[in-house]
Every structure is written in structure tokens, then in C-alpha cells.
Amino acid sequence: MASILKLADPSELAGTWLATLNAAQDPDRLPVGASNECSIDLRPDQTFGAGAPCIAAWLGEQVTGWFPEPDGIAITGKEGSKVLFFSRQHEGLYQGMLQSGQRITFKRAGH
């Protein structure tokens, strides 16, 4: 039986999220000066508040915005193109994969 995915309104995803880079077992794989955990603020206007530099350090490029997709959240770079996709695991939990193979977990703060 097919399921229909609903596109979330940006206001449903806006707020504070905890992002964790799964490099805890190998801290040498973290970019210089980067932490493996940071708080990210997704604004209702689909821009970033606090935390954008943290994600940018993991990606190795500037991030400027985000938008909902039926099955997740897309992060955009300075050219407006999608640079990272977070797949919805369940309510309040998303996961993305860097080109290096490292996983980022994106969890709604307070859950």
C-alpha cells in the first residue's frame, strides 16, 4: 500500500535542533576547530540563526538556508543549491550523510 508524504510547512520545522556529527569514536576526523555537537536554529524564513558556522565547518562550505522536502530537510549553500539532505527517521529526528561517510543526526531540542 502506497503512502503519501506530506510536505511540512517551514513553521513546523523552525526552532532549535541539536546536530551531532557521528565522529565521537574518531575525533581526529573532525575538521580543525569543530565540535561534534552543536545547536542549530532553523528560522521560519528558512534561514539559519545560531549554529550555521558549525554545520558549515562539517560540510566545508557556507550554508545559507534550508527547506522542507516531503521526506526530510534540505540544507542549501551560498549558491542556493542543496548541499545536504536530512532524511526523516521519525518525528523530530533526521539523519544526513556527509561525502566522507560521516553521519549527522538532527534532533529537535527538548525531545
Automatic annotation (TrEMBL):
It is found in: Periplasm. Residues 10-108 form the Alkaline proteinase inhibitor/ Outer membrane lipoprotein Omp19 domain. Pfam families: Inh (PF02974). GO terms for molecular function: peptidase inhibitor activity. It comes from the Bacteria. Keywords: Metalloenzyme inhibitor, Metalloprotease inhibitor, Periplasm, Protease inhibitor, Signal. InterPro entries: Inh, Inh/Omp19, Protease_inh_B-barrel_dom. Transmembrane segments: none annotated. Belongs to the protease inhibitor I38 family. This is AprI/Inh family metalloprotease inhibitor.
